[in-house]
Amino acid sequence: MKISTKGRYGLTIMIELAKNYGEGPLSLKAIAQANDLSEHYLEQLISPLRNAGLVKSIRGAYGGYILSKLPSQITAGDVIRILEGPITPVEGIEDEEPAKRELWIRIRDAIKGVLDTTTLEDLANHSEDEQTEGYMFYI
Questions:
Q1: How far does CA 95 lie from the centroid of its chain?
Q2: What digits encode the pLDDT tens for the residues 47-80?
Q3: Residue 7: which of 48, 67, 57 has the closest Cα?
Q4: What is the pTM of this model?
């Protein structure tokens, strides 16, 4: 499965809104400038997120966007599904031989598990100091 720029930039929008949660609306221009992204492209991505009910728009001179739920209630999976569609690593798995079909299903379920248990709050609170578990190699 490959996440396109649509999914990556959409997640960037949502993480920035999560970081700013409770502090009022945030403009797409501010998000674009902070992340060196195209404001025009972000405008195209915010619409499906708004239509899905994940963000609300605030009009006016100090308007922008806010999350419609707590950051802990929105998962990365919610955002990716809205912008990318269903999570499937391989098309047509029902036509595969049983062993390969089982592998694709296990991969799909693992990806869904990570996306559906990672909230915007988790992503917004992540720091550079946190280390992910890596592999230890002994020679």
A1: 30
A2: 999 999 999 999 988 899 999 999 999 999 999 9
A3: 48
A4: 0.84
